[in-house]
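ok so i was messing around last nite and threw this chain in just to see what happens. nothing serious, just curious
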Amino acid sequence: MNIDNIKMLLILTQLTLAVTTDVRCYKVKNEANFIFAAAGILYHAYLGSQTEIIFSLLGLITPFVILMPLYILNMLGAGDIKLLCSIGALIGMRNVLLSIAFSFLFGSVVALAIMLANKNFISRFKNLYIYLKSCLLNMSILPYYQLNMNNDGKMHFTIPIALGTIAVTLF
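result:
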């Protein structure tokens, strides 16, 4: 097995574990994220240059820096951010940025499908409108809380993360 196959195996294992635990209990395990982040750094250290280690570390911190505002606003879970950080340690900054972009693209499609299936598309957009209006009236960005607190629109974001990451690493 060559070194690139090992990296792909690590990524697929990590994504499978994350999606499985998220779907079962709405959690992405910290231990798994830590192990795969360490594996990513060690993988790049094995390749033998400081540049590879920096590549891995930049991939690790980039999702944290970019996505933390969404966590603060209650729009994204901490486990999802940590998952993207550990993926970044394996695939680097450029690819994790692409993975984030594709994850949001796939997430939009999944969210649209959920809203159509639950027939709450209009009410969800009314909630978004009320949130944006509140932000404008208060002249500040407020934490986003769902006005409709049932779980009919809850999405496991690890699924779009997996799809986005696979799209980036395979193509």
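not much to say yet. The chain has one domain: 3-170.
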